[in-house]
Amino acid sequence: MSDPYTRIVSGVLFPLQERFKKHNTVQVRKAMEASQWLSEDAIGDIQLQRLRQLLVSVASTVPYYRNLFEKLGFDPASVTSVRDLERLPFLTKEVIRANTDALKAVNATGLARFNTGGSSGVPLIFFIGTERVSHDVAAKWRATRWWDVDIGDREMVVWGSPIELGTQDRLRQLRDRFMRTELIPAFEMSDAKVDGFIERIRKWRPKMLFGYPSAIGHIAKRAELSGQRLDDLGVKVVFCTSERLYDHQRETIERLFACPVANGYGGRDAGFIAHQCPHGSMHITAEDIVVEIIDEQGRLVPPGVSGEIVVTHLATPDYPFIRYRTGDVGTLSDELCGCGRGLPVLKDIQGRATDFVVAADGTVMHGLSLIYILRDLPQVEAFKIVQERLDLTRVMIVCAPGADALKLSSVVRTGFKQRLGDNVHIDIEVVKDIPAEKSGKFRYVISHVKPQQDAAPHA
Asked: What is the pTM for the complete model shown?
């Protein structure tokens, strides 16, 4: 049961804020909380109706799609199944960069400009309208309430996005104070900084944490090493997003905060795609998102088979994301969750395609195959793996106090060669610390090697 202040924020203050912004977030959330209990077929009918509405809208208002549909002879009004999306080409980052203005609806107003750097470092500039914002916020809000917490409960956000951190002016600070949200910048994670973060968390006693699993996990491990408890704060749930959540991170966070971890999957470009329920399933926001899984040739694969995640966001008439290639790898499930929701399930999310590595013989392996080698060595405090070429992989290692760096390097080199090939050069660099990405996120594995078209991933 939420406290009186939380009920005021969730029921009055936040809805007033959304109305002021001309967002219909409250209505969307309420509709989603009703539709989630419908059957899979009923939710599919809602999805199809909204897909048809989106395609009809963009055909008349978005220059890029008006021209594309005319060229293909595609009639959006004749769409009778989400499989009809296969008649349309994929939307890629390259297509968006080449058609940034042509993707804007001619009647769009109040578009907000966003950009994301991505793994290539080349920024992707795109725009988001008020309908998209309302639906994304509503989807996140609904998923938050699955865990018996709500807007207005004390929250600590561990984040590194320049967008959020750059808006910490007086108005935003006042808003956060009313909403009972505190922000921790995840850019610098030195021992001194993290000790300060732990002190702030203990003082604030949040009911929920939200942020990067790497950063929250690092805070938890630092607390354990320094003998500070986190399991006596009353944290009910830790929401992790924006990075792949590894099993060892989940175990560390759950053990030290003494609460469950709820995984979330999405992005600024693709939207709020899926969120974990208390039963453990990653539910797709099917009222807003169509998810397709494709192979290397761009063909749909059935549930249970992994491939690239492609999304169509149904609340994007102002700046459409239709068959958008995320670059992430995942698998659809054909089973429903025991929680009773009819929302479809993402069986697993394996991370970005660049989180996979390629052995010298062409075998494609998940980065976990190398991560496990380092993670199981107590002499390693932190690491980062960069596969530069098929014959060169760089490994940055932060050694634990007293570790023999030469002996450790030999062990790591041997393990990596067993996975990647005897002739692969393993360049090991012992460093004092490993900085996060510019966004504040942390990536354990980055590969610049493109797998062969017919190569199949291995565990």
From this structure: 0.80
Domain assignment of residue 392, yes or no: yes
Question: What is the predicted pLDDT for the residue at 118?
Answer: 47
Q: How many domains does the chain have?
A: 1
In a domain, 354, yes or no: no
φ/ψ region of 294 (left if φ > 0, alpha if ψ in -120 to 50, else beta) reads beta
How many Cβ atoms from other residues are within 10 Å of residue 295's Cβ? 14
Q: Cα separation of 282 and 449, whole Å?
A: 30
How far is the C-alpha of 46 from the C-alpha of 33, rounded, in Å? 14
Which tens digit of pLDDT belongs to each residue from 40-72?
Answer: 999 999 999 999 999 999 999 999 999 999 999
> Average pLDDT in the 158-183 region?
72
CA distances from 78 to 59, 66, 105, 204, 214 (A): 13, 15, 22, 55, 46
DSSP state of 62: -
Is the distance from CB of 330 to CB of 98 less than 8 angstroms?
no
User: Measuring CA to CA, which residue among 142, 144, 152 is closest to residue 3?
Assistant: 152
3-state secondary structure (DSSP) of residue 360 = coil
Three-state DSSP state, 39: coil
Mean pLDDT of 385-414: 92
Per residue in 434-447, pLDDT (tens digit) is 876 655 566 788 88
Burial class (CB in 10 A: 0-12, 13-18, 19+), 136: buried
Residue 340 in domain = no
Report which of 297, 347, 359, 12 is spatially closest to residue 367, judged by C-alpha positions: 359
* CATH number, residue 367: 3.30.300.30
Residue 451 domain boundaries: 359-458
Task: Quote the CA–CA distance of 352 and 362 in Å, as a whole number.
Answer: 18
